[in-house]
Automatic annotation (TrEMBL):
<dbReference type="GO" id="GO:0071949">
    <property type="term" value="F:FAD binding"/>
</dbReference>
<comment type="pathway">
    <text>One-carbon metabolism; tetrahydrofolate interconversion.</text>
</comment>
<dbReference type="InterPro" id="IPR029041">
    <property type="entry name" value="FAD-linked_oxidoreductase-like"/>
</dbReference>
<keyword id="KW-0274">FAD</keyword>
<keyword id="KW-0285">Flavoprotein</keyword>
<keyword id="KW-0028">Amino-acid biosynthesis</keyword>
<comment type="similarity">
    <text>Belongs to the methylenetetrahydrofolate reductase family.</text>
</comment>
<dbReference type="GO" id="GO:0106312">
    <property type="term" value="F:methylenetetrahydrofolate reductase (NADH) activity"/>
</dbReference>
<dbReference type="InterPro" id="IPR003171">
    <property type="entry name" value="Mehydrof_redctse-like"/>
</dbReference>
<dbReference type="GO" id="GO:0005829">
    <property type="term" value="C:cytosol"/>
</dbReference>
<dbReference type="InterPro" id="IPR004620">
    <property type="entry name" value="MTHF_reductase_bac"/>
</dbReference>
<protein>
    <recommendedName>
        <fullName>Methylenetetrahydrofolate reductase</fullName>
        <ecNumber>1.5.1.54</ecNumber>
    </recommendedName>
</protein>
<comment type="pathway">
    <text>Amino-acid biosynthesis; L-methionine biosynthesis via de novo pathway.</text>
</comment>
<keyword id="KW-0560">Oxidoreductase</keyword>
<dbReference type="GO" id="GO:0035999">
    <property type="term" value="P:tetrahydrofolate interconversion"/>
</dbReference>
<dbReference type="GO" id="GO:0009086">
    <property type="term" value="P:methionine biosynthetic process"/>
</dbReference>
<keyword id="KW-0486">Methionine biosynthesis</keyword>
């Protein structure tokens, strides 16, 4: 069943979460532990992030450095297949512009279709660490909507070179990202919403938000999006606050604000354990309010927060 069908058919607010593929060479066992920890809350689907290759420099010991390309977290496709086979849960691998050419994307789509994995989250992705601004891969895309168009053509049985497939299979369905506090590169929120509508018109069936800690920002964003003609579900992306260092890290990394009330409570904390408890309580309040507004699904970002999410889920699910 497609993610959009899972969302729409659920009588109560659905539960889902996102995971990282394991670091290269570390195995999949810890990832299974994460799923086992959260499985009791009946996740409707699990997202698997995708990571681009980065340049790393190896010291040759003679005053010279060798530049190599390294993907620290490979295996999105195989991890998705492993989870689907082991747990019989719908999986949603991320498909990126960042670091991938059109041909790279086509091969990923072929692999996923062979595995009968047909739900995707389509994203532009972040710029490379060595870049000052986002630069597409050679023969790649600048924007997620261009990636959507390739997937749409693939669904019609047409390859990137214009040739036709001899056999077509179940078409891909997909969601996209959105930003209640505006994408950092968007000139304003109205422009951001304009492009969300274009993504919907191009085929996106739902949107998942960047994490946020102020529900008012989410509700305001949804209201503005609806007025602009966006009709697809807008799924809130949530991550419990956990560490004192996140007071500065979260605004810097994710370009979102922390509410004054949450900040005041965290500043009272003497250590990370106290901050984690504040984060759990805040997240429970967030989720309960979202549920009161009959939000169809809540999506949790689990990286570094599995234990907190379990405590939240125990109280709300």
């Amino acid at each position: 069943m497609r993610v959009i069908d899972l969302i729409n058919s659920n009588e109560k607010t659905a539960f889902s979460f996102e995971i990282l593929p394991p670091l290269k060479g570390t195995g999949i066992e810890k990832l299974y532990e994460t799923i086992d920890t959260l499985r009791e809350f009946d996740p409707k689907y699990i997202n698997i992030t995708t990571h681009r290759s980065e340049y790393v420099y190896k010291d040759l010991g003679n005053g010279l450095f060798q530049r190599n390309r390294l993907r620290r977290r490979p295996g999105t496709v195989s991890v998705a297949a492993a989870i689907q086979n082991k747990y019989n849960i719908t999986v949603v691998p991320h498909i990126l512009c960042s670091g991938f050419s059109r041909e790279d994307t086509e091969y990923v789509l072929l692999d996923l279709q062979f595995l009968n994995i047909t739900d995707l989250l389509v994203l532009r992705g972040d710029k490379a660490k060595h870049e000052s601004a986002f630069t597409p891969e050679g023969n790649g895309y600048h924007h997620a909507i261009e990636l959507q168009e390739q997937i749409n053509q693939f669904n019609k049985g047409i390859f990137v070179d214009g040739s036709e497939m001899k056999v077509t299979n179940t078409p891909f369905s997909y969601g996209v990202a959105c930003y209640p506090e505006k994408h950092e590169e968007a000139p304003n929120i109205d422009t951001d919403i304009y492009w969300l509508k274009k993504k919907m018109e191009t085929g996106a069936e739902y949107a998942v938000t960047q994490l946020f800690y102020d529900n008012r920002k989410y509700f305001d964003f949804v209201e503005r999006a609806r007025k602009a003609g966006v009709t697809i579900p807008i799924i809130p992306g949530i991550k419990p606050f956990k560490k004192l260092s996140q007071l500065s890290m979260i605004p810097k990394t994710f370009k979102v604000d922390l509410p004054e009330e949450l900040t005041k409570e965290v500043l009272k904390c003497k250590n990370d354990a106290e901050a984690q408890q504040v984060g759990i309580e805040w997240c429970v309040q967030q989720c309960r309010e979202l549920m009161e507004h009959r939000i169809p699904s809540i999506h949790f970002y689990s990286i570094g927060a599995v234990d907190s999410i379990r405590e939240v889920a125990k109280q709300i699910y």
